Every structure is written in structure tokens, then in C-alpha cells.
Amino acid sequence: MAAKKSPFFDTATTLGKVVAFFGISALCGVLAAGMLVPVAAIAKTGLTTGNNIVSALPSSFEKLPISEPSTIVDANGKTIANFYQQNREPVSLDDISPYMRKAIVSVEDERFYEHKGVDPKGIARAIVGNLTSTSRSGASTLTQQYVNNLLVNNQELSGSEETTVSGNKDYSEKIRELKYAVAIEKEMSKDEILEGYLNLVLFSGREYGVQAAAQRFYSVDAKDLNVQQSAMLAGMVQLPNVYNPINNPERSLDRRNKVLGNMYRTGAINKKEYDDAVKSGLELKPSTSPSGCSAAKDNAYFCDYVTNLILSDDTYGKTKEDREGLLYRGGLTIKTTLNSELNKKAANDARKAIDPNAKSNKDIYSSIVSVEPGTGNILTMAQNTTYGPESKDSGASTYYNFAVERSKGGAGGFQGGSTMKPYTTLGWLTEGNHMYDTINAKRPYFAPGTKFRASCLPGGTATVGTKWEPKNASAGFYRRMTVDTGLYWSINSATVQEAYKTDLCTIADYTKRLGVLDQDADNGQPGPISPANPSFIIGSANITPLSQAAAFATFANKGEFCQPRALTAVTDKDGNEYKVPQETCSQEIDPTYVADLNGTLKKIASKRVSKGRVPGPIAGKTGTNNYATSTWFVGYTTGISTATWVGRLNGKASTEQNSLHGATINDEQAPEMVDSSTYAAPLWVDFMEEAVGEYDRSSFGSARSRPVVKKEASEDSSDSDSKSESKNDSDDSKNDEKADSQKSDDQKSDSDSGDTKKNNGNSNGKGNGKKSDD
Q: pTM of the full predicted structure?
């Protein structure tokens, strides 16, 4: 009986033909990632030789960009946050430890520098081992593994449903891998292939490439890895989850020592190096580099704002999915305007003003945002909360960014209160009036049907629907006074009388030109503030702190408005630049009117708010809506404009139920009358007393003064009016002096409140003893 011929060497069998194929084609790596090509599959092709199979495949493939993290940096280049699906930081081979290079070659492909992409000896050994034992061994070279990783990367970028992951590949994919490996060996040097592989391969979780892995497990750069560290990382690539040293330290240590044995056997290290290394423990020093804004800490809300800017701009892709792909895989460097050191102070001050961990503050928050006059650069954007999901039991965390509009992650703005009054004053000045003009602020009541001039509306008027009674906080201010006095003490009846004698469309147009939008103007979407309801002049519209900081920066910049911006440059890993908004500024207010306005706002900031703490020149305006659910101070120097806000989020509607008057805040009872001076203005002072030192503090210019009335003026009616006004002004000044001496700058002296929707948006003030109108 003839001896039975081994099928392994029998060319009449399919398996024998496969072996013949290996010899003919010199592509003996049909085993890809440790799997033998299914012989039955080759038999089904009708191709009789390996050469036919290989020649039917393309000789090369497009190598798409390797996924790299994107980084957001501040104005000084300091990293704020990283975004990635694959945490990877490519490095050159010279920046990878020689031990690491030797370790990966020793364990994955010890004949790497001898073969030309596939290893016939390795394949023969793997075939014999796989046929004669129950275990499986692979024969893929480093070049083949590099090809496989490139193909996987291509599929992820293109969204292909096919896969080249080991264990899921069919025979054609494995043969394709072989041909590509041979082709790459002709295009790239061994060192280039090794460098590419070590930057591409998965080590653990979302850590790809040796630099990310070195940082993750040892907090060192790849160039500083020692023998045992290199062996541990090299051992991980075969089964990253199984050999993870944090989750499976014993398996990881055993695997590392086997790699060390390979390194010693192949001469990569000497006996002493081996002995010393194998005796050592894992000696991990793990570190993390989280993806996304949650890792940005105090800068998280600015980070979120920047992210929303990228994801909503078709400059970065046609679809949101495209833009997300670029952000998480495109290796962008996103340079911003943020002063991160100053922003840290802003966040600390916001928490100091309203403690997010106080049980009483479940729905009470603070926000602070700064803009640079003359550029529009956003310098700070912080709040008292932690960036994260909301908790039912605490207000300590939220994803809402209180400073911005909804489409950019915001909460829809808040009633502006009397921070809106400067726009009425600008309208007054634009129509040829002056700050020293006297108005009759006695009238607190407007009957239904009262018409205000509004040239842009049908019929040229805005009509009061139901009665409107904008009350003052203090009864003593129902009198004649100058516009300057009315704005200084934020007298509602004074502002309303100004508006009654001014075109409401002129006032509303200023808010539009300076970027202050009603966040609910168009079915919950931002839009220009409508002049149809006169109550907008004292703050009934929901506006954002960012818009007010940018608008008031116009007052600091002689009437030149600059669109707020957060991005200064965006480049990808290849140096390609993306278009970002440039400084966009335009003259929107006559500088003379700005100087007049600043003459009053300077006194508010220095006398009523700062009281010597913030180095000047400074200017600003207080603001509080009904029931103090929204309190503000927006103030500025010529170098920095800052809006601070304190109030409710879920209960921001100005109702008695939501009132902050006498509420428990910071686990203490608040004053009976809460207004801007209670929390928002002190927050502004705490922040600005240091912040102003980093930026310009030039003069705002001088306001126009009243012409001197000559004593010998004629006794006509106009002269009588002049005398009457002079007397009123004199009385007004005396009253102001008396008010300054008798009233503190707390809730009793402040009288500026935004209007709410009650009674057609027309009831505010402290007339009922329950509401402040500061």
C-alpha cells in the first residue's frame, strides 16, 4: 500500500495549489492577521494560479488622511480642549525611542528588515502551526498590518460598510492586502513604514499611535520610553483590550515579559537589559487627555461656543456630519480670542457671587462675558456652573451657556432691564436733544390708546394696548429733571418721557445696529427688537449678555461697533487655512452722542458701583427686571467691556412666584429688595478691578455742557422758558446732591427696572412695594 501523500505537498489538491501559489507569486502572506485564506474560496474563483489572482487586483490605493485630534487654543496658543475619535499625535521616527522600535519589530515581525512586504518563512511556519495544533498563529508582516490599518482608516473616513478588520476579511481582501504591501515596500523605506505603523496602530481604547499611548500609560513622550515600557506597549497591539495594563495588569505583565524575551532572543537588548527589565513592575503613571469641552474646565462654555460656531458653518463641510468629521478627525488647530487666565478669574468670581453648591441656589445662576472694544474679540465667557448634564437636586452643572443665543448653546437670553435705557438716550440725542435738557418725569401713567411716534410702523405710531404704568422705585423722582439725572438714577418715568418725545424706531434701530436682538422675536428665534410695544425701552425683551457686552463696547470705542468674534485662525494638520471672520467694525453712533452718553454712564460706574475699587476711566449701566429674576451690570473701559448677569434660568419669567426679593440666596436671606447692586454689580467690580489693568484705559472724551444763559437776555417767552429750565436744573442738581447724600447705592437708591409682559408689558417699579426697578 502506497504511503499516503500529505495534502500539504500534493499539488493535485487545492491546498497544494495554494502552496504553489505562494512560491510562484512570492506573495507568501496570504495569511493576513493570522488567518489562512479559505482554500475553498480560491477554488471557486476559477483562477488557476496565484499570479492570475494578484494581477487582477489594483496595484495601489489612495491613502486618505490619518485621523488626528483637533485642538482649540486660547489667544496665547495654550490648549483649551482636544476633540478626537482617535487620540493620536503623530511623531517622527527620530522622536520614538529606539527600544520601542526594536520591541515592535521583535514581537510583530522580526524579519521586517529582510523581507519585501511578505514573509514566506513566517507564512510557512504559520501554516504548519495552524494545521498541526488547535491554536492559531499569524504571519502578517508589519507592512501588511500597516496596509490593513490604512484600509480601515480609509473605510472610516469614506463611511464604507465593508471592513478589513481581522477576522472579518474574505480571501480577496487578504490577497489585496498582500499586493498593497509589496507595492508600499517599493514606495517607502523600511523606516518610513515603521514610522507610519507606530503612528497609526491602536494601542488602547481611543489611543492610537505610540505618542498617545506613551502619554496615556506613562505620561512621557514616545522618545523617552525605556526598555520595559516599550515592551509593554509593543505587547498591547496584538490584543489591546486583553493586554491593557490598567484593566488586566497580570496579563499585561506576562505579555510584556514575553516581548522582552523576544527582544533578548533577537539581540535587540543584552542580558543585563533583559534581566533588569523583566524584574521591574509595570510602574504605570497614567494620564488622560479627554475629548471635548468637558475637559476644558473653566473654559468649557467658551469651548462649547466655539464648537457650535464650527458645527454651524458650512466653511467646514456641507453637512453637520461632515463638519463633525473634520472637527474630530481633521487635525484642526483652532486659535481663539480667549484670555484663558483672565477667564479663570471670571469663573472664580462667578462662583463667588453665586455659589453653585449652595442648596438654595438650585435655579439661581451667574454669568460673565467680556469683549474687547475696537476688535470685537471675546476675551472671557464664564459662569458659576460646571459644564455637564443638569441635576434635579442641584444647579451646579448645566450645558446651557447663559451668555449666548440658543443656536450657539445658550438659554435664550434674559430680560435686559435698565441696561436698555442708553439706547433711548441715544435716540434722544440723535434727534437734536441734549443730556442737559429738562423733561417732565411726573407722568407715570399712559392710558389705553396712547400713541408713541414710530415712523417705521404702519400709521407711524405704536399704540399702548392696556394701561401702562411704569413706576419708579422712589416717590421723590416723579418730578422735572434733566435727561442726565434721569439716566444716572435710572428713573423709569424719565426714560419713558424721553421715548415719548423720540421716534421709537430710532431707538429700536440702535439696538439692531449694535447687535442686540430679541431672542424671542420670531417664534422663539432671534430677531430685531420691535418698537411696536413701547415697554422694550426699559428692558422687556430677552437679550444675551454677549450682545450687551459687545454693544457697550461701542460706547467705549467712540461709536464704532465691532461684531463679537471668537476665532482668529483655523488650520489643518497640512497647514491649509480655513476662512474665519475678520475684525468687522463700523461706525454706528456719532462720537459726539457717545461722549454725551458716557458723561452720565461714567458717573454711574464710578460713583454708584465701583466707589474707587476699579481704576478708571470706567462707565456702565445697571439693570434689573421685575421681581429681580434678571439683574445686570454692563460696564467698560476703552480696553474691555464686561457684562455680568445674575438671575434665574427656569424661573426667569418676572413673576412674584419667581421673585428674588427676600429669597434665600447662597443659603442666606437676600435683602427685601434685590437689584443689580446686590450681586451683579459686585461681581463686575470683583472681576474688573484686576481685569482693567491688562487693557487700555484711555479717556472717553467730554460730554457737551449746557451753554451759559446770559443775564441780560430779553424778557420774551423763550427767555422765560430758559429761566424756568435753569431754575428747574438748579433745583434738580440740589435734589441730586440730596439724593447722593441721603441714599446709599443699594436697592433704595436704584430705580431702573425692565418691564415684564404683565398689563401688556407695562408694569414695573417699586410702586407696589414688591418690585425694584433698578
A: 0.83
